[in-house]
Amino acid sequence: MSGTAPTPASAAADWTTGHEALLYEACSACGQRSYFRRGFCPRCGASPVAVHVSQRKGTVYAVTIVARAPTPEWQALAPYPLLLVDLDAGPRVMAHGTAGLAIGDRVQIGFLRLGGQLIPRAEPISQEDEEASP
Ligand SMILES: [Zn+2]
């Protein structure tokens, strides 16, 4: 669990507001790290919790293939993988993925801009990439 940088909650901005970042909350009481920001810990109820900017490497936990996309822009890309990724920082996040990704693959979360939205998208990383950058 490394590669994270604490950030003031007031400076927190992520992909949902158009910034290329993944954020998570960390509980100082029990250590829980949560992707969905609630302002309290879902495990022990403590508040407040600290907001961190996450590094973006992780391991694919689950994969499903979307054949019927929700919008015409996404339908142009279908079928495409939708993933759950366990970030090295701890939280599990949902992300779109490049074709061919499988459970256990190491990935880096980047971002794709589609239909005016910024969307997390996982791409495979090689062993050389893992060693070249944190
Ligand atoms: Zn807690």
TrEMBL record:
Residues 51-111 form the ChsH2 C-terminal OB-fold domain. SUPFAM superfamilies: Nucleic acid-binding proteins. It comes from the Bacteria. Pfam families: OB_ChsH2_C, zf-ChsH2. InterPro entries: ChsH2_C, ChsH2_Znr, NA-bd_OB-fold, Thioester_dehydratase-like. Residues 21-47 form the ChsH2 rubredoxin-like zinc ribbon domain. This is DUF35 domain-containing protein. It comes from Verminephrobacter eiseniae (strain EF01-2).
